[in-house]
Amino acid sequence: MRASTITASESATEVYCRFVENSFRADEASATDYEASIWGKLRIYVLQLAGVACVMNAIEQGLQPSVVTAKQMSWAVDIAYYSQASQLRMLIDIFGSTNTTSQLTNKELMMLLECRFPNLIKSKLAEAIGVDPCQVRRWMNE
């Protein structure tokens, strides 16, 4: 397969534009920065997923991929909404709600993550939140 440019049909563009408008509204109504950041990533992922769907369909038919259809874009949008909902469920599992305005201490955060995900590598978590790994071990042993 040779390299080619994939464009979007007019109807696929309309589907994407509706998604972008809805995602901006949801972004503005987000309770947390984390929740808002999800939408920015998903706006990019939708385009990538639609391109993947186009390529997969073209390969299946033995054709060169060229135009993303409204159906392919709708599939990508559906995946984005599913991903956003899944990430919010994970946030709720970790913090108990999407309202994380009451700031957790690093120790509380580490304890919650340890409780919820016992197989996480503590030194990597310590590095991610900027805490000395020795301090994390002390917290875990208290």
Could you explain the architecture of this structure?
This protein is mainly alpha-helical and 142 residues long. It has 2 domains: 7-95; 106-141. It has 6 helices and 2 strands, in the order βααβαααα. It has helices at residues 10-28, 33-61, 70-95, 106-116, 122-129, 133-141; strands spanning 7-8, 67-68. Strands 1-2 form a two-stranded parallel ribbon. Helix 5 (122-129) crosses helix 6 (133-141). The longest helix is centred in the first third of the chain and has 29 residues, at 33-61. It is elongated, with a radius of gyration of 20 Å. The mean pLDDT is 84.
Structure annotation, total helices = 6
Radius of gyration: 20 Å
Query: Quick one: how many beta strands?
Result: 2
Q: Mean pLDDT, nearest integer?
A: 84
Largest sheet features? 2 strands, parallel
Spatial sequence of strands, sheet with the most strands: 1-2
- The number of domains: 2
Low-confidence stretches: none
Percent of residues in β-strands: under 5%
What is the N-to-C succession of helices and strands? EHHEHHHH
Shape: elongated
Terminal-residue CA separation: 59 Å
Classification by helices and strands: mainly alpha
The oligomerization state is: single chain
What level of helicity do the residues show? over 70%
Based on the model shown, name its key terms:
single chain, two-stranded parallel sheet, 2 domains, elongated, 6 helices, 72% helix, mainly alpha, 142 residues
